[in-house]
Design a protein that fits this description.
- It is a single chain.
- By secondary structure, the chain is mostly helical.
- It contains 14 helices and 6 strands.
- The strands form 3 sheets. Strands 1-2 form a two-stranded antiparallel sheet. Strands 3-4 form a two-stranded antiparallel sheet.
- α8 runs antiparallel to α14.
- The longest helix has 23 residues.
- The chain is elongated.
- The two termini are 29 Å apart.
Length: 255
């Protein structure tokens, strides 16, 4: 289970009282209080935070574990087997016994290989990542390629840093191929006019006849993006030269 809106509803006074049981240094307590009350920016407008806990920082899960320690003690008192991290918790009871590869926790699941159990990314987490990529590479967003590359880099680094403990070498290769195809789609959409397509294809090394042939194509976007001509012009090397962060290469760097 995942506690609904947990990070939005944490009571600051309750949390600080629990923290103060373990930390006696008033300077540290003051810093934690300031962290909780640091506020948020919504559409460029600063808003005070009277409750909740900021997400994304290294302190947030630690404070969550302190806040929910009483919950853990209650589960232990009732004799339950459980695994919890921050607001995400699995409680194992007789009616929920299942194969490891059918269970999901913190975005991960498991697989069996020659009698051993390995870790992989759950399909829901993969779909969520791909939806984020789709949002960044949407044909109708009107964003510059530089902006898209920066957002893709942030998305890829965060995702890989989180899921790097899983066995995702083959997955990252597939995601790379799929993402590059969507980037080529963005280029083709931005070029729009036939002459612009022709000129850019020639600039990237396509012969005049082929450039005119592809510039005048009536194929749908998704088919043209996977064409040999775009793979030969908007190459993997070229995409990386303009800022594309390879998902597979990033995984190999941190693995």
């Amino acid at each position: 289970m995942d506690l609904a809106k947990y990070f939005d509803t944490v009571n600051h006074d309750k949390l600080m009282a629990l923290v103060a049981r373990e930390i006696k240094d008033k300077r540290v307590l003051k810093l934690i209080r300031l962290f909780l009350q640091s506020g948020v920016m919504i559409n460029g407008v600063y808003i005070d935070t009277e409750g909740g806990c900021p997400q994304g920082g290294p302190l947030s899960p630690l404070l969550s574990n302190i806040m929910l320690t009483e919950f853990d003690r209650e589960l232990e008192k009732r004799g339950y087997k459980f695994c919890r991290y921050a607001d995400d918790c699995n409680i194992f009871v007789k009616s929920a016994v299942d194969r490891p590869w059918r269970r999901k926790f913190l975005g991960f699941t498991f697989y069996q290989f020659y009698g051993k159990i390995g870790i992989k990314v759950h399909q829901k987490s993969i779909n969520k990542f791909k939806n984020k990529i789709k949002e960044i590479t949407s044909r109708s967003s009107g964003k510059s390629m530089k902006y898209r590359m920066e957002k893709l880099k942030q998305c890829v680094i965060g995702w890989i840093n989180y899921f790097r403990i899983a066995d995702i070498s083959k997955l990252t290769r597939k995601l790379d191929e799929w993402t590059r195809r969507r980037i080529r789609m963005c280029f083709w959409k931005q070029w729009k006019k036939i002459k612009t397509k022709h000129d850019n294809l020639v600039r990237l090394g396509t012969s005049e006849p082929k450039a005119w042939e592809y510039a005048n194509t009536r194929k749908c976007y998704w088919r043209i993006f996977n064409s040999p001509i775009l793979k030969a012009t908007l190459t993997n090397t070229y995409l990386e030269s303009i800022g594309y962060t390879s998902i597979h290469k990033r995984y190999k760097q941190v693995h």
